[in-house]
Each structure stands twice: as structure tokens, then as C-alpha cells.
Amino acid sequence: MAKTLLIIAAISGLLAVAIGAFGAHGLKGRVTTDLMAVYQTGVQYHFYHTLALLLVGILMLQFPEVSLLTWTGWLFIAGIIIFSGSLYVMALTGIKWLGAITPIGGVAFIAGWLAMAIAVYKHIGE
Length: 126
Hints:
The protein has about 130 residues and is an all-alpha fold. Helix content is about 80%, strand content about 0%. Helix 1 (about 1-25) runs antiparallel to helix 2 (about 35-60). The longest helix has 30 residues, at about 35-60.
């Protein structure tokens, strides 16, 4: 599972760079300043949680018996898709109701961080 999460993290990083570059160059002058800020928020959280996903994969290599790390990884992936994805689509289409979906991704991020904290506390170290 660690290998799978590390591959997903690499692809997610690739996508974060490509999506960020598209926003910086392809959307300039095409979307409002407000929607561009929404888009950039999606890119920012996408990058943060790609790095978090990379960390989870590395932890899984060191501690393969800690199954809660698998949940952590999937929660981060869900957060990237739902949180950042909804912001990308909202910025590109102007469909404001997508903002109602975004917090679900935020909850997935929070749950992922909590799962990581519990995994480390219960299974790693002393």
C-alpha cells in the first residue's frame, strides 16, 4: 500500500504543478480576481496535502503494520479530490453552489490529520 500511496503522491504533485501553471498562465484575464483566488486556494491545499500524502507513504514504508496510516492516505486523497477539485471546478465554471461541497473535503483533510496523529501516538515510537 505504501508504494501505491507514493505513486499517487507523485501523480498528485505532477497535477498540482500542472493545474497551478494552467491557472497562472491560462486563466489570466479569463476569470475574475475572486475566482482566481478560489482557484489558488485549491492549488495551495492540493500541494500541502500532496506533501502530506508523501509523508504518509514514507511512514507506511517504516511502519507497514500501522493500518491507520492507510486510512490517513485515503482521507488525504479524498480531501484533495473534493476540496481542491470543487474549488477548481467552481473557479472555472462560476457555479457557486459547488462551495457547499468544499467543506466535505476540508473535513476529510482534518480527519486525515487526526488519523495520522492517532497512528503516531498509538503505534510509533515509545
